[in-house]
Amino acid sequence: MLVRGAVLVWTGGRELEGTDVLISDGRVAALGDGAGEAHDGGVLDADGCIVTPGLVNAHHHLLQSAFRTLPAARHVAMREWLAIMAAAYRAAGVDAELCAAAAGVATAESLLCGVTTVADHHLTWPAGADHLGMARATIGTAHRLGSRLVFVRGTAGDDPETAAANCDELARAHGTDDGMLQLAVGPAGVHSDGPEAFRLLADVAATHGLRRRTQANEQVDVERAAERYGRRPLDLLDDWGWLAPDVTIAHLCAITDAEADRVAASGVTATHAPGCDLPSGWGVSPVAALRARGVVVGLGTSGGGSNDAGHLLADARLAMQVAPLSGAALTARDVLAMATRGSALGLGRDELGHLEPGAAADLCCWDVSGVADAGVADPLAGLVWANPGRRPRHVVVAGRVVVRDWELVTADERDLAAQLRARQRA
């Protein structure tokens, strides 16, 4: 397939005007004016568009898309929010059917917003439920819709041995990485899980070659680490062997300069989630300070329970707007890099988040021909600054068009919404 007619192609590093993108066998084959003859996929019209790598949402909770705008769940302390969410999960009866319905809505929303890879940190595993069936429901839904999925089998206060056994079972059932599905493991954080959970999940990761992910330094994490251990969260993660190059930590709110130095020295990657942390005052990550120290920082939306949308580009704009309040500014190119290459590197996925030849053919065509982009002097910066609700015209994953002319190709989004609403009424 040939992506032809773009105003600009941003590869993740280079800005190329009047450049076509040739896709072959799910990879970027060539770049250039008339990069090559179209293959069987034909020509994808990118006239009036900026082409970018597909966005990589490094931190989501897909299940929470069934629990948006819950009463009393906004502008409260995080410990209160956790209790409200737990009650909502119990009332809904989380099972494979709900996981599939929520994942359908969240994955479709992600694709329609330009996200081609999403990392789902799933933390809710009711006792007695079919845990493998729940995981498979999410995995199967993402596969059907054409999205890349990183399924993070997490735990939030579950029995450590049971959680580890379930992680091992999932890895044995689905551990073959075909590029579309990647598995990882990760406790929710030191606020919910102790050293045994971190140790046992690390053992599963080592056995199966999986990456590790967790969360640290949001409001409740700091409070409970102090109450239970008299320590800071990063002190505990260091002691428990979770400050290491195969680990990605989401949030990292309000860390000190010394903690930023420790994160940088450890080789840990980070994920910024401002759309989750800012609305309720749970903290702000000093992203520019981390990046200045050489820390790879990605971007995530977190889930619908704290961020009612899965619009990563909108959260990139928010990250750019709030950055000066945490010490230093971020540019549009900085946050675009975070939402693509930064997130991909945190997943250990060197083929994602850029469009140089050999990269995975995951890309977005963003129409910039309308009034929202008129008068923009810097089109790439305008992609983030202008039109906050922007959605891509086309989205391609692994060389396959999954969104064409702003419409989902792989399913009817209205049917997906209806399925979730029906499950909620049941």
Largest sheet: 8 strands, parallel
Mean pLDDT comes to 96
Please, how many domains?
A: 2
CATH class of the largest domain: Alpha Beta
CA-to-CA gap between the ends?
44 Å
**Biggest sheet strand line-up:** 8-9-10-11-12-13-14-15
Report the uncertain regions.
none
CATH architecture of the largest domain: Alpha-Beta Barrel
Helix-strand category: alpha/beta
Number of helices: 14
Backbone CA Rg: 21 Å
Protein topology:
Layout: E1 2-4, E2 8-10, E3 15-17, E4 20-24, E5 27-32, E6 43-45, E7 49-53, E8 55-60, H1 78-92, H2 96-112, E9 115-122, H3 131-145, E10 148-155, H4 160-174, E11 181-187, H5 195-208, E12 211-216, H6 219-229, H7 233-239, E13 247-251, H8 257-266, E14 269-272, H9 274-277, H10 287-292, E15 297-299, H11 312-322, H12 332-346, E16 363-367, H13 379-385, E17 394-397, E18 400-404, E19 407-408, H14 413-425
Parallel strand pairs: 1-6, 2-7, 8-9, 9-10, 10-11, 11-12, 12-13, 13-14, 14-15
Antiparallel strand pairs: 1-4, 2-3, 4-5, 7-16, 16-17, 17-18, 18-19
Helix pairs in contact: 2-3, 2-14, 4-5, 11-12
